[in-house]
Amino acid sequence: MSSYVTTSALVIFTEECTGRPRKQAGAEDIISRVSIAELDALRTAITDGKAFVGEAELAGRPRPVLALIHTSSGALLVLTDPYPTGQRHDAGMNHVGMDDVSMDDVGINVVSYLWRMAAQRIHEKVADAPPSFLLESRAASAERVRVTAELTDLHSTTLETLLAALRSPSLDDAAARSTVTDLTAKALIGIRTLSDRTTDLVEEPVGKAFERLRKDLRPFTRFSGIEIEFVEPPLNGRALPGEVAQAARAIVRGLVLAMMEQPDVSRVRIHWDCDGENLLINVRDDGRGTLAAGAPNISCLNRRVQALNGHLQIDVMAGWGADVFVTLPLNLPAPPAGDVTGWDLAARELEVLQHLVAGERNRTIASLLGISENTVKFHMRNLFKKLAVGSRTEAIALAHSHGLR
């Protein structure tokens, strides 16, 4: 790629990798500040699927960018301050404007071609991810939700305090108070929108996840001659954690392939359901019942299921086909309660810590415990001192490491 286009930074944004949605390289002042909100806004602005060459808000300010979308997965590639390799360039890369460069069609076409290959490879690696990746992805997803909740709590409290002050009748300048109040209210909405967006990144509606599975299996029906029947889950079912949705699709694809390798299979039935705690998968064929539970391909799929603390069962009846049942829990397993006696916490401090770990805000904790927010803050200060931590996030992480949920 560098043979055709030189750039100050490269950023990839994909929702298929829930734990690591961004991959980036290049100038530290760009890759350390670029946000998911900026990348999402840029991706939304590219409506025709073609390469975008222009200016976009990235890392806190407008920058020249070359952006491409992979149509199948929606993954986004962004190159900042792009210009054709070999073109004279004396100024610092961060100061190049789009008027200073002329991206030729050859360079863009080559970058587009390379990006399609890279994005497809990302998609394949996620679809065939090993159990270790699924475990890491699930842990990273949960941690990002917790950190986002912490940031939302911090900024919401600050802005709500500011709103209260600005609405005070003791302020004389009504016009200033009205203007700043409006701006602050919009900021509050923006923060909560970002929090919702982060949650969306780590969850996928069950109906959408099943539709993606149907799309993935479409070529099977087109070229194999085998009929695949889809029984859709309830549309109001609980959203799936991203890694569960990805694993479920990969497991079903693997089961369908294994069933298609048997003789005399003409029909496969796929049924998803959700009981609120688990994703329930049933895949059945009409073959001779020769699917072997101990076959290498089935054992590989079973390891994926076990990586998510799930269960796979195969019922085979000679002459009647195979019936496979998979259960994938939607929640992280709760570890046994850890020993926190070494922290010498008072009963009320332990209660506050438990509510903190649950992601509750100071105001909610105060309401649940029947105490004031100032008292909650008093207990927080004592907690931080006893746990030798400097922030709520550190306290949560330490509590989790001791099995406290």
Automatic annotation (TrEMBL):
GO terms for biological process: regulation of DNA-templated transcription. The keyword Transcription applies. SMART domains: HTH_LUXR. Residues 338-403 form the HTH luxR-type domain. Keywords: DNA-binding, Transcription, Transcription regulation. GO terms for molecular function: DNA binding. Pfam families: GerE. It comes from the Bacteria. This is LuxR family transcriptional regulator.
